[in-house]
Amino acid sequence: MKLDEDLLGIQEVRSALREAKRAQKLLEQMSQTQIDGIVARMAQAAEAEAERLAALAVEETGFGLTADKKAKNLFVARDVYNAIKDMKTVGIIRKSESGQVWEIAQPMGVVAAIIPSTNPTSTVIFKCLIALKARNAIVISPHPSALKCSAESSALMRAAAEEAGAPPGIIHCLSHSSIEASNELMKHKLTDIILATGGTGMVKAAYGSGKPAYGVGPGNVPVYIHRSANVKQAVSRIIQSKTFDHGTICASEQALVVDETIKPQVIEELRIQGAYFLNEGEKQQVASVLAIGKGMNPKVVGRSPQAIAALSGIAIPGTTRVIIAEEISVGHEYPFSVEKLCPVLAFYTVKDWQEGCRRCIELLEQGGLGHTLGIHCEDSLVIEAFGLEKPASRIVVNAGTTFGGIGATTALFPSMTLGCGSFGGNITSDNIGPQHLLNTKRVAFGVREMPAAPGPELQPAEERVAEAIAGNGGFNRQGISREEVTRIVRKVLAEMENREGGML
């Protein structure tokens, strides 16, 4: 009898979690040197197979470009690895300067990893590296449309880890991928922490699972071009960033917000560098295919400008690198104003940086709260104002947001999972790394004594006597205050001490 696919998926989850939990207990006993050796071997394997995995992802999903997906795989295998290779994740990882507080790392346990279809191989490699670096096991739930390339990436990571001494079963990838299987994985008692990268619905499910979760929100990234910007350089960086892998990274630019004084110069430079500006009729045709309801149309995600134009029924030059539509409003009824994981941009004009500020906030509120903002500017006061006021976790200055947000061209922590903080309903605004998959215990030594509260037995003798006398009804009837009684008692006691001193 053939079992239902959903039941098969749920059973696979349970079996994978049991094996992963056993393997994790063994991995937890390993030394820092052993863990580092395992992670190094995984990174080496990812680097060697970066192009093959990239080609598999493009072939299976139809999204993006092989060369760019290879670059993403290499970013993880090189940049992310270099950022984490010397990180302490075993035993005492830090002591305070005084030595009175020790921080001890302990793994969280089993990581449930939800993988998107847009960046499947690089995200699998990334999550495997950071999970094992923190001595966790990982069970991967791939997107159904990227099942094969995700499974191949997982198998590569598992083989490399086990060859380097990791216990068998430390990495699993589900072969029966479904919403039911993902829900079982996220809610199961053996799952300890969730790393969710995907659509809004999946991220909400992760946070609603009752388990600790790192989820990431959408990235409707606005980019402000101030009148002080180096226009040629800004346009070059924006187009390189937006067209990378046909725009499938969620930190890619979504809308340009340009000062009106430099608008002609920006438009001219965009056209020189391969942008195609839609006329009003073409704009309506492209808008009709960008979204389905309030979500992105998967048929345009990660596709070339020419493929999007063909789907829209318009003709554009073969040399076009990005499609641009001028826009004046923001909202779901204006499809160019929302996240578009493809080489399509909205173009807004503003009078000054204050209006640009308001427009950028509108765009972030439309679906990118807490994610990323770009600004091209040479005025430090304007840059500071944007950094202080915007509800974005990453303010990328004079760099493409795709590369700047993930830490490829900025000094941010290199990561393929970008938190959006409470702005975007996430628990952190950080670029996620192994440090987020650790329980940090603290051993704290006593450094001071707690002062004892004064009691009656510590009260000076003369005050106790005065209190007793003042409390006598007879003195109170004569109108003598407690302070006067205290003065009298102190005088009597002093005279007695003087007499005793004279007798010696």
From TrEMBL:
Keyword Oxidoreductase included in the entry's annotation: yes
Residue ranges of domain Aldehyde dehydrogenase in the record: 11-270
Name this protein carries in UniProt: Acetaldehyde dehydrogenase (Acetylating)
NCBIfam families to which the protein is assigned, alphabetical: EutH_ACDH (TIGR02518)
One Pfam family named in its UniProt record: Aldedh
Alphabetically ordered keywords of this record: Oxidoreductase
GO terms, molecular function: acetaldehyde dehydrogenase (acetylating) activity
UniProt lineage: Bacteria, Bacillati, Bacillota, Bacilli, Bacillales
Its EC number(s): 1.2.1.10
